[in-house]
Amino acid sequence: MSRIAYVNGRYLRHAEACVHVEDRGYQFSDGVYEVIGVHEMQLMDEDYHLKRLQRSLAGLRIDMPMPIASLQQIIRHVVHRNILHNGMIYIQVTRGVSRRDHAFPNPPVRPSLVITAKRVDEKRVLRVVKEGVSVVTMPDQRWTRRDIKSVSLLANILAKQAAREAGAYEAWLVDEDGMVTEGSSTNAWIVNQDGLLVTRPLGQEILPGVTRRVLLEAAKCEGIDVVERAFSVDEARNAVEAFISASTAIIMPVVKIDDRIIGSGRPGSISVKLRAAYYKAAKTS
Question: Is residue 118 flagged as an active site residue?
Answer without folding.
Answer: no
